[in-house]
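Hi R.,

Here's the chain you asked about this morning:
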Amino acid sequence: DAFLADGADDAPPELRAGALYGAMIVTWRAGAYAVARDYGERALATYRALGDRRESARTLRVLANIVLIAG
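And here is the predicted structure, written out as tokens:
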């Protein structure tokens, strides 16, 4: 979790976004929806900052599922 912390700026943003996305998937499947949403929103912000529209869309799709399930 230290790698995913907001202060972990030494990692390349592409790697950090991918790790956040993966953490979102794992926590979503574990039923920790609030945590998954947090990871997803941070991944989305990073992908958007990188201008990566494909990964932004993929992340938004999962976030939409989380909101549908968790309310």
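One quick note: The helical segments are 13-29, 33-50, 53-70.

Cheers,
M.
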